[in-house]
Amino acid sequence: MTRTPLRPLARILHARSHGENPDAIERENLRLRHEALRDRARIRAEGRLLVLAAMFFLAFAAIGGRMGLEAASDPAEPRVTAFEADISTSRADILDRRGRVLATNLVTHSLYAQPHVMIEPERAARELAGIFSDLDEDRLLRQFTDPGRRFVWIKRRLSPEQTQKVHDIGEPGLLFGPRQMRLYPNGRLAAHVLGGAGFGREGVSAAEVIGIAGVERVFDDYLRDPANGGAPLQLSIDLTVQAATAEVLEAGMRMLNARGAAAVLMEAHSGEIVALVSLPDFDPNDRPLPLTEGDAADSPLFNRAVQGLYELGSVFKTFAVAQALDEGLVSADTVIDIRGPLRWGRFRITDFRNYGPRLTVEQVLVRSSNIGTARIAQMFGAERQREFLGRLGLLQATDLELTEAPTARPQMPANWSELSTMTISYGHGLSSSPVHLAAAYAAMVNGGTAVSPTLLRRPRAEPGPRVISAETSAHIRDMLRQVVTSGTASLAEVPGYAVGGKTGTADKPRSTGGYYEGKVIANFAAAFPMDDPKYVLIVALDEPVDTTGTEPRRTAGWTAVPVAAEIVRRTAPLLDLRPQIARRPVSGAVPARY
């Protein structure tokens, strides 16, 4: 930069030669210099103001654009950088089909300590050990007096009474954090349906509640999604019917000295499960830990209605008879040769008792002849039998909304031989669950359409694919009714309600192969009222024995059937079914004479 001198020599000499004052030249140059400095400062300030204005404009434009994007996007839970603020604590309620609460949230507290601000750690440890029996006083004292500790978790969930007792200690180093606790107000009722919930990510002042089993886990995303606005999840379970079913089943299990029991009550046309009970059960408010060894069925967490895959015995005979009728291979009056034993290689098929040389197809089902059912199965063979049972859903896992359902795959022979066809026809050689059986029997009695079992309330249920004709379904309803009126399930008769069904008693298999001596799985598959079946009921008992007679009795007619009859007697009025004093014929089928 060239600097102009204030007193240039040439101008000074010129001024002196003309008699002018040289000092005026200096003053003029000084004025011009100051003016130039002011101009540069002004230009620089104006530039800074322009830059600042541009920065503010860009900032406001960015904020406005972001606000526009947020307004146009779907609602979502706010997320910030703080860990605890990122934890969602909301969880929707679960209701039964009538709107009654099955699972909800309870505001509670967690308890933690900050040892560095504690005044009397010895007294605090002693008082806490007195309030909580599972806490050790010496261990607490070591933690409270450790100079390196600044934080100690004590209890992650407190009841209101416990919170008050801890508050009364008056120790400033004991602090509370807010919590949302999952509460099941009905205790053990519907425990295997609900499953349970626990804490996921946790912080001092927040914790997320996540489903760990049952519908709580299957619908975890829905229950935790704030976009649903807290809308509850409504199940198909009826709380009152569930309670009555559980009460009767538990009493029957104890009276019959059974190891376990299961019951499934399902709407015949929609597949909605109104009651699902598995015993022994548990309290989801205090869910036990899974077994680490031994038989899984010994755990109360084991859901026998869904996971209990067993050979179900003679209840399968209904499917063989229905298939033969539907394919036109037999009629209800067709005579079947049941002389036995029926031999296949080194294997022999026999009946429970001697029914004579011949029975009609209807009598084969009503009197439960193994030989007669096996001969009927030989008429359609292995391939067609497998295809028919597949359409009934008996060869694959169900779509039931429980975490255990996808793993409960029916077990079937790798080589479906002619012998397999005969044994499967009367319920041996294929293992399935009570839920599978309920869905299959629904198709037998509802007019012949398949159903998909569900735990969700369906306002409108579309009929499934047709499995058997309506005429065949009518014949099956008539035969199942006769099983109760004159067959192996006579103890299932309930005055006012036309109950039909089929008994099944299967030897209990060993995990190492073979069968136990004197141990059975007793089943009864029932439907009511049989003139227009609305509900299907499955009752299964593990190792039952009736000791009221002179000799122990283990068959389903003496064990599962009376329990099912009492369930029908207790639940039918709750299901708004009026008893019929004068009943019309149960179907349009023509009864067989024998």
For this structure, what is the CATH homologous superfamily of the largest domain? DD-peptidase/beta-lactamase superfamily
Summing up helix and strand content along with how strands pair, one would put the structural category as: alpha+beta
Mean pLDDT: 87
Q: How many domains is the backbone divided into?
A: 3
Report low-confidence residues grouped into runs of 5 or more: 77-83, 587-594
Structure description:
The chain has 594 residues and is α+β, with helices and mostly antiparallel strands. It has three domains: 1-28, no CATH class; 88-234, Penicillin-binding protein 2a (Domain 2) (Alpha-Beta Complex), CATH 3.90.1310.10; 240-284 and 306-575, Beta-lactamase. The protein is 36% helix and 19% strand. The chain has 17 helices and 18 strands. It has helices at residues 9-17, 22-72, 121-131, 137-144, 160-169, 191-194, 214-218, 220-224, 239-255, 304-307, 317-326, 361-367, 370-391, 418-425, 434-445, 470-486, 560-571; strands at 94-95, 101-113, 152-158, 174-183, 196-202, 207-213, 233-234, 260-267, 273-279, 310-311, 335-337, 342-344, 347-349, 358-360, 431-432, 500-509, 515-528, 535-542. The strands form six sheets. Strands 1, 2, 3, 4 and 7 form a five-stranded mixed sheet that branches. Strands 9-8-18-17-16 form a five-stranded antiparallel sheet, sandwiched between helices. A hairpin with a 4-residue loop joins strand 5 (196-202) and strand 6. Helix 11 (317-326) crosses helix 13. The chain is elongated.
